[in-house]
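**Reference record**
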Amino acid sequence: MMAFRIAVAGVRLGVFDALADGPRTAKDLATVLSTDPHALELLLDALCSVGYLRHDGRTYANGVAAEPLRAGYRDIMLFWHILVGRLWEDLEESIRTGRPTVDFYTWMADRPETLAKFQDLQRVVVDWLARDIVEAVPLPAGATRLLDLGGGHGSFSVAYCQKYGDLSATVVDRPEVLVIAGETATAAGLSDRVTLHGADLRGEVEFRDQDAVLLFRMIHTFPADQARALIRGAADALRPGGKLIVLERYPDPDAGVVENAFSHCFALNLHHTQGGRLHSPAELAAWIGEAGCTPPQRVVLKDSPSHVLLVASK
């Protein structure tokens, strides 16, 4: 916990960015960062002790572990620091009762800056996955209608529209989240082909005759009964021959220690803040079949074995 906190302090103060071009003395860093020299040296030594920095007796330099903190993972760390610090204080209570103690999305809706950080985090993950998914999972021939349920950031819809010139997409999510999707579509020059529809996904899916429906990284928001109903609603929205494409996270021994650890901690956070959970590939496949689709095929994502990508047809 202390190691995580000092890394956050280093990110916020700009330590890792200040060392990007090479080693510097503590005195030099204190001047550049406008900090107290003695206090900064205490932080630098602490960062060295846990591997984020290196010290040769005179100067400090970034260690191997510091590299992610200078890239997209910096925003991920800052978001999780806010979430764990604010929402996990009563973690034991949700363990005792089996019920969440807070509504994650309601909490974020009242905090626009935190919501923006969350969407930035989502974008980092999406940018990492979108190209592989769009190439690995083609849409049905002649597809013109794509429904993206819970696709608030809009990035997957934009990626598919960029690949298929005749495709239009509808992104369904909470109104406060769809602001980000609108920005994504506008930035890509696709605002005329990406429609935003505000709705609570716990209700009925009202769309029909879609060529493809995406359920990407959002089924875990719901407990089993609601997740099952959502998959059925997504299948009902498809035309005959349309594709249902599901992307979820689930622990996988082949994913490595760090990925697996995050999956388990993520599952705990889902329980504590949303009452959701990570549904197994077998559960998802069964619900997809019950909804009237073909047995789903699992597409392996080589860069992220902890993500489960399932594709079925109606």
In short: The first strand starts at residue 53 and ends at 55. The radius of gyration is 22 Å. The chain has a mean pLDDT of 91.
